[in-house]
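EI: anyone free to look at a 928-residue chain?
SC: sure, send it
EI:
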Amino acid sequence: MTASLGQPPTPAAALALPTEPPEVLPDLIAGLVEAGRPVPRDVALGLLRRQLGRVQGRVQRAFEAHDLSGLGAARWLAALTDGIVAAIHTYTLATTQDPAAAPEAPFALIATGGYGRGVLAPYSDIDLLFLSDQPLGPQGRRSVEFLLYLLWDLGLKVGHATRTLSECIEDARADVTIQTALIDARFLAGERPVYERFEQAFLAARKASGLASFLAAKRAERSTRHARYGESPFLVEPHVKEGRGGLRDLQTLYWLARHAFGVQRMPELVGPDTPGGGLLTPQEARAIRRAWNFLWTVRFHLHYVTGRAEERLTFDLQPVVGARMGYTRHGVQDGVERFMKHLFLTARDVVRLTRLLEPALERAALGPPAVVPAGDAALSQAGMALADGKVLFAPDRNVAADPAIMLRLVRAARDRNLEIHPLAHRALIRNARYAVQLRDDPPANALFLDLLTGRDPARQMRVLNEVGFLSRFMPDWARIVGLMQFDTYHVFTVEEHTIEAVGVLAALERGELGEIAPVASELIGQIQSRRALYVAVLLHDIAKGRGGDHSELGAQVAQEICPRLGLSPEETETASWLVLNHLLISQTAFKRDIDDPKTILDIAETVQSPERLKLLLVLTVSDMRAVGPKVWNGWKATLLRELYWRVAEVLAGGLSVPERDTRVARARAAAAALLTHQTKAETDLFLGLGYPGYWLSFDPETHARHAEMIREAEANDAPLTVRSRVIEARSVTEVTVYCSDHPGLFSRIAGALAVAGASIVDARIHTMTNGMALDTFWVQDAAGGAFDAPHRLARLAVLVEQSLSGRLRLEAEIAKLRREPARLRAVTIPPRVVLDNHASNTHTVIEVNGRDRPGLLHAVTTAISGQGLQIASAHITTYGVRAVDVFYVKDVFGLKVENERKLSALRSALLVALGAPEMPPDTGIRTV
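SC: here you go
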């Protein structure tokens, strides 16, 4: 293997992985030690650098040519690095040892940690142990120092320790991290008898301490690691090494097997004559190897693409690594989505394999658990027992002959507040395939529905999903397992998001979200179609990834699944309708003007029933809360609540378009009632300023504040007045601007707010009868909270004044604002413009979709103003890096924009503002 370092291996050679690392590289040693004398250090360093470059280059070329898999490349790199380290050891002894000095205790050079396992990633540390029987003398310490500095000068990251044999045993007993590293110890160079004595002593110490304490320590370590890097194996930016279902979880299984039985490879646990009596089946051993190899391949690509020890697969790296691994578009799925699905399925397999092997290792090493009959007759008759206070299948129960017992076990654990025993998890995983037999079994479906609608349903669904039962019981579920959407909005894969949504629904029902979602928490106790709601939440995204409208396709799936689960025809129709319309409320609340009566009447016409409106709001809250921690905020909660109450008013017969004048009169009267401190002349002046749209846009208290603001501005002859009010309950700050109206006013204010660091979430634009503009903006900070710092509010007012006076160079200031992180730039957001003349009776509705950026709203509104249009209201929503901005506009005559030529010009201007290149007239736009 050392003779052809300059050439990448052939595919055949790639299969012949080195079983024993080379002890020396003869040619390299000959270059370092000529005629028994070491060459000067700088000459040796140059020679070693060239050799290291050839080694690393050879492995990289072979890996990127697909001649080596990830695991194969890791083994080759470790083996070739062994040769370099061994040569450095020889050169070190030749340089530092003094033949005339008194003899000292010799040392062995040992590889530990991952390097000790014989695998090495391109930018990983090299962990070394200098091991001796007695403490090192002066020459030994000088040799260690010389060798380490040489490795560091080569640019290698080296973790090292110098210990005696007895210190190793004592330190391993005191520190599980050291014990774990030493489990992987492997001889490299030096005095082999020293290593052999250590190996025997360490094995005896492990046997004496037993597996129990080591297992407990590794479980605690794993829990801490998962809490840091992610409890779910389905996070959309996974940590390949440390996350749940990653390489470290597989390594933990290896450490446990090595500690318990001394095995070197997992196939050594297959078969009745192996340690433990056959803890793994051949298929399970192959699954471990596949996962190990796939994760190593991903890790190698991550290191080579980034040029560093990067272990997190961020959005920007996902398409690059996926393409390097050969994933291309297939049907409706992009290559990156196919790659990530494979990764998530691999992580799921690692989780299952952990549940399979870990309890088996524990019982094989420590003895079987003390299984006792269940305390109540019902549990015993159901074929279950208890061990360690946890429920499991009775020893005489054949799960394959009675697959429904798997559901009964999960229900028994729930009803009795018991944990499921690890051995029961192992049995569930191995027998999950028999769930196919239960699809058309009414009692089994009733059991499943009970688990879905009973106490803590998310926990039960997560158990059934992780063991593989759910995918076999419900084939449509299998299609969304591991399915991700390549955006920055969703934090979880589709099936994990769905289970989270079920959990949010249950939390609403328990009253745990009363402060966060008070209306939904109140309504859930009033609904009549509880079972249909839970099934609708489970199925609301079931058709994602199929192409087409997933709501429509999901409604069809619900029509098939609901009867099988035992829902009545009426419940089936309700669940299917909820799946079909599960985005209706959120899209309306965030993308339409809910002060426009037509918006409310349109949604009321679709919903038709107060019961369905309640169900839809609760489903919407459950869906949104489950997307991710940054999606839900007080402002969105307020919009949903207001929309709900307005639609509920219509369904109760409380609103119709002809009553608009009456409602305006009521609003003016309510405002006047609060203006008793003003003179009648001042009050009459204010009441004559607003057009009908103004009076219907705010509550009486806001009208009163506006009246006082306008009175002060007129009294002081102020050309510009800016007022702000923090609304903590809505997590938003209201900014009101009163000034002379002129074209482009909205865009200049929007630009100033962007420079101030404020994110606009909603806006109302009103021109008063005196020609002044009264514009109201609701803004948040970057974290989605109220923009409430006093110094930032003061700066905001100054920037608005500077912008309107022309003293602020908006484009230059916006260009200085911080852009999005590089990892998010890989997410493609095609620009899209929708011009809708049907959503409102009085306005043209413009919806623009594009990549969010500082100043985007300024650019878009500048384009709208440049077309001679007046903006009446704006509704701003972001989904990760996608911005969805909606504007209600009129032309200069107060009419809708219906001329095709004007619509085409508007569309072109908006696409330019979104950053799109010139596009054909029929691209990127939809006119409704």
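EI: The chain is about 55% helix and 10% strand.
SC: 👍
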